[in-house]
Amino acid sequence: LTSKQHHMISLNKLYFNKSIFISLLAGITLSLFSCQTEDEPDDNDNNDQNNDVIIEALSDGNFENWTTQVEGEVSFEVPESGWWTSLNMLATVGSPLTMTKSEDAHSGNYAVQLETVAWGDQLTIPGIIASGYFDTNQPIAENLMLGRPYSGTPTMLTGYYKYFSAEQDTLVIYTSLTKFNTETNQRDTIAEANFTSDQTVDTYTKFELFYDYYITDQQPDTINVLFLTSISGQEFLGHVGSRMLIDDIEIVSAND
Questions:
Q1: How confident is the model at residue 58, as a pLDDT?
Q2: Rounded to whole angstroms, how far apart are CA atoms 87 and 234?
Q3: What is the DSSP letter of 253?
Q4: Distance between CA 117 and CA 63 in Å, rounded?
């Protein structure tokens, strides 16, 4: 091959990788950045419980159980339940990993670590973990399925996090409850909540995201939970080195 042909192959590969990344990230962040509410975390790190609440741990919400996922010549560790997904599938086209297992845990042995990383000289990829999965029967860049079945009406999502902000980068924690509307053939947002912060937090701190309900006469059928290291990651403006650790994610519901 001539040097020009090599250059064209490199450009085509970059365009292909970038197209996949844009498609995946757009799917993850579609509803995230339309959420206007912001909830402050609760710094009171106590676990007092009473008869007025029901605490429900999300599947793999303590990130204790991991397994190795093999995709062709690439392998990486993922939470064992398959309830969570990340951008690590991009490793199959040369991307570095953005989600890894960490021994720096709030409780137990492990937590999940997300990190914003550089992919070559052209792309910056935020660390993301979200409820969902990749459907291998769908075309690449269209196979990210977000959300998990859920029919409760919780009051809040809680958990513990650390965040190391590079150049005042901003983390996002987002959750929503939705239901498929058979009349409109679209999803209705029943409730949602989010939290953003650009502050470095070097000790595990509890967050509490209270759901803001928009529809109160219907039960959701799906829950979305998402953690993101860089709020501007979808515009490739995240700062390399921003890092978040997450552990002990739970749903809190009122005991009616």
A1: 81
A2: 12
A3: E
A4: 22
Q: Indicate the DSSP class of residue 140.
A: T
Q: What b/e sequence results for 169-193 when a residue is b if at least 16 CB atoms lie within 10 Å of its CB, and e otherwise?
A: bbbbbbbbbbbeeeeeeebbbbbbb
When comparing pLDDT for 118 and 2, which is higher?
A: 118
Beta-bridge partners for 205: 161
Q: Which residues pair with 123 in a beta bridge?
A: 119
* Nearby residues of 183 by Cβ (< 8 Å), 6 or more positions away: none
Task: Report strand pairing: 212-213 vs 186-197.
Answer: antiparallel
Q: Three-class SS string for 1-13?
A: CCHHHHHHHHHHH
Is 80 exceeded by the pLDDT of residue 78?
yes
Report the SS3 class of residue 20. Answer: helix
Distance, in Å, from the CA atom of 69 to the CA atom of 66, rounded to the nearest integer, reads: 9
- Tell me if residue 127 falls in helix, strand or coil: coil
Distance, in Å, from the CA atom of 173 to the CA atom of 247, rounded to the nearest integer, reads: 13
Reduce the DSSP state of residue 53 to 3 states and report it.
strand
Q: Which residues pair with 43 in a beta bridge?
A: none
How far is the C-alpha of 173 from the C-alpha of 249, rounded, in Å? Answer: 11
- Rounded Cα distance, 63 and 60, in Å: 5
- For 237, the 3-state DSSP assignment is coil
Q: How confident is the model at residue 65 (pLDDT cuts 50, 70, 90)?
A: very high
